[in-house]
Amino acid sequence: MQGFRYIEGVVTLQLTDKLCVGCGMCEIVCPHTVFAVSGGKAALLDPDGCMECGACANNCPTGALAVNPGVGCASYIIQKWWMKITGKTGEIKCC
Ligand code: SF4
Ligand code: SF4
Asked: Which ligand is nearest to the CA of 30?
């Protein structure tokens, strides 16, 4: 799924900097290289690369991360992927 992106500027991902202890778990589990951890803190390297899968928030030991996982992004990505491989065009519907 690397290379597929959600809609720009609407991601629900939030990082509470003061809660981050720099463990690096988010950097490890994120399939889209959204995080960079250095100097004991995580930073959002590419927020719009987030697919809202929830893996980072589920694995963050301090609750520093929050994201609203949903089916809307999956629906959007699958429709976009389908158009790409079939060459079809049209409106992409998302919840
Ligand atoms: S998993 Fe949580 S505590 Fe660990 S680096 Fe990422 S945001 Fe910080
Ligand atoms: S929700 Fe998934 S894609 Fe988004 S930042 Fe977290 S691990 Fe990465």
From this structure: 2
